[in-house]
Amino acid sequence: MAFAYYNPNPVGLHVRDCTVRALCVVLRIDWDSAHKLLSDTARSMGMMMDDPDVIRAILRRRGFRRDAIPDTCPDCYTIADFARDHKRGVYVVATGTHIVAIVNGDWYDSWNSGDEVPVYFWHKSEKQEGQTK
Predict the structure, then answer these.
(1) Residue 37: how many CB atoms within 10 A of its CB?
(2) Residues 121, 91 contacting (CB under 8 angstroms)
(3) What single-letter DSSP state applies at residue 16?
(4) Deepest in the core among 19, 28, 76, 125, taking most CB within 10 A?
(5) CA 19 to CA 54: how far, in whole Å?
(6) Cα separation, 52 vs 34, whole angstroms
(7) Could you tell me if 57 and 133 are in contact, meaning their C-beta atoms sit under 8 angstroms apart?
(8) Total number of domains constituting the chain
(9) What is the pLDDT of residues 15-62, one digit of tens each?
């Protein structure tokens, strides 16, 4: 389990595209396709691309389900801890201001977000994951 540098931005920019990056990883699509998916979904819902309801609609349609992070230690459980505890599977983990993909214990981001504190996450069951491969 480790941080894996990932920046699929087609021109190599570091911009506020964490949702696009996360969708690229978990849906196995390129940056342009993820950006278009977010844009089209948001437009159809009358919302902005990074609105949680837009992200929820996209992930639910693809078999992900949302769960909360237990609030037993609200400031000490980090993305790195989550990755360590989830060595198998595909996850989209959200903080209050950031979103990151975790696959088999590695978190994919354009910066090391391992110290960020997650609030909730999206995941697929192993059965569902097997159907998408």
Answers:
(1) 18
(2) yes
(3) S
(4) 19
(5) 10
(6) 15
(7) no
(8) 1
(9) 999 999 999 999 999 999 999 999 999 999 999 998 999 999 999 999
